[in-house]
Design brief:
Layout: E1 15-20, H1 30-38, H2 45-57, H3 64-81, E2 88-92, H4 99-108, E3 113-118, H5 125-144, E4 151-154, H6 162-177, H7 181-184, E5 188-194, H8 198-202, H9 214-235, E6 241-246, H10 261-270, E7 276-279, H11 288-291, H12 293-305, E8 309-311, H13 319-339
Helix pairs in contact: 3-13, 4-5, 6-9, 6-13, 10-12
The structure holds coproporphyrin III and fe (ii) ion (FE2).
């Protein structure tokens, strides 16, 4: 007889929603996609033309949707193999399947208590609050349609979860292995993430974390350190490392996080570094920011300099990441049951390093928008 108390329970949740950015799937999608991304965001036309060109170089197809389909399959497989009976849906901010359509489908299917996994591991306006605003907008649309409103909660940031960090350690080791053998031991590690305006970085995370760089920079530095330490333990070599940025947009007079990966490669070359590994810790899959900004642009810069580089892969649909999501779902479900008086104890919360597990509920003032808008799944 199976012990039913051993069955993993996601109660009170009745569905998981994978919430992502979305990307174009053909040349005719590129301009409407970019219009969706930049609606009301004041991105210079020149930058948009430039970014459109990146997509056209790849046939107008972003890899991100295929990667999310893979992640969806990996999650369903992991849940099924571990007896977790929780349907998984997928919706995007900027392209089909659109979040509003998915949420409508979920409600029509009878889902009333929804947990959200965003494909962004860190605190920031773009990676956290903007998704919460998108959820609020979608809920408002369902309300105007007279549909019942589900309760929506968002999983905590998972940047320091071992299921996110450990695949990146393996990926960094693999990328070191792609460098010429004689250059490996002294190769630099360039941990890279999306640049954001310094004003957005400074106010990222809960108000208590605000200050220079905010939670955004602190969380990335933590992951960089965790990966660098684990790599040193495995190779015995003390690779110099730095956190750098990529994919800057916005007006030139507005300060964004620096240095840019290309400037950093130039600096490394100038200092006589023998080789470098680019480790895109800021991204969950090898989407366009990785394929173009690193594999195309930064790789060309390195070739021009004569600096050997390789690039570590992101976690993507790694089974360890899928297992981490299951762990986070079960943890949050148990936390809710505890809060509602249905469980004897709060669950353990898995996190590497010293920052500790991130908050479940974004407090008031977490990653504020420039102009305040309704946001779901938080305290405000
Ligand atoms: C922090 C962050 C992440 C990581 C967290 C997360 O994953 O959420 C991220 C991810 C992504 N960004 C993406 C694409 C774009 N981001 C843009 C613009 C911007 N991103 C920003 C930040 C971030 N972006 C910011 C501050 C802007 C400026 C304007 C604004 O405040 O909105 C623009 C407009 C043109 C341009 O400015 O480059 C595009 C096309 C794609 C899809 C890639 C694909 O298609 O494979 C993905 C996963
Ligand atoms: Fe936040």
């Amino acid at each position: 007889m199976p012990d039913l108390s051993e069955q993993p329970s996601s109660a009170p949740y009745d569905a998981l929603l994978l919430l992502s950015f979305g990307g174009p799937e053909g040349p005719e999608d590129v301009v409407p996609f970019l219009e969706n991304v930049t609606r009301g965001r004041g991105i210079p036309r020149e930058r948009l033309k430039e970014v459109g060109r990146h997509y056209f170089l790849f046939g107008g197809v972003s890899p991100i949707n295929a990667q999310n389909r893979e992640l969806l399959q990996a999650l369903r497989k992991d849940f099924a193999e571990h007896g977790l009976d929780l349907p998984v849906y997928w919706g995007n901010r900027n392209w089909a399947p659109y979040l509003t359509d998915t949420l409508r489908e979920m409600v029509t299917d009878g889902r009333r208590r929804i947990l959200v996994l965003a494909t962004s591991a860190y605190a920031s306006y773009s990676g956290c609050r903007q998704y919460r605003e998108n959820l609020a907008d979608a809920l408002a649309t369902l309300e105007t349609e007279g549909l019942p409103l589900p309760r929506v909660d968002k999983l905590r940031h998972y940047y320091n979860h071992p299921g996110f960090v450990r695949p990146m350690v393996e990926a960094t080791l693999a990328a070191l292995g792609e460098l010429p053998e004689g250059l490996r031991a002294a190769a630099h590690l360039a941990f890279t993430t999306h640049s954001i305006p310094t004003a957005a970085a400074d106010t990222s995370g809960p108000p208590a974390d605000h200050g220079e760089g905010g939670a955004y920079v602190a969380e990335h530095l933590e992951v960089a350190r965790l990966v660098a330490d684990a790599v040193r333990e495995r190779t015995g070599a003390d690779h110099p490392w730095r956190l750098v940025y990529q994919s800057r947009s916005g007006a030139p007079h507005i300060p964004w996080l620096e240095p840019d990966i290309c400037d950093h490669l130039e600096e490394l070359h100038g200092e006589g570094a023998p080789a470098a590994v680019m480790v895109p810790i800021g991204f969950v899959s090898d989407h366009m920011e990785v394929k173009y900004d690193l594999d195309t642009e930064a790789a060309a810069k390195a070739a021009e300099l004569g600096l050997p580089v390789s690039r570590a892969s992101t976690v993507g649909a790694d089974p360890r990441f899928a297992a981490a999501v299951r762990d986070l779902v079960l943890e949050r479900a148990a936390t809710e049951r505890f809060a509602e008086g249905g469980a004897a104890a709060a669950p353990e919360r898995c996190a590497l390093g010293s920052l500790g597990p991130s908050h479940d509920l974004c407090p008031v003032g977490c990653c504020p928008a420039r102009s305040p808008r309704p946001a779901a799944a938080g305290a405000d």
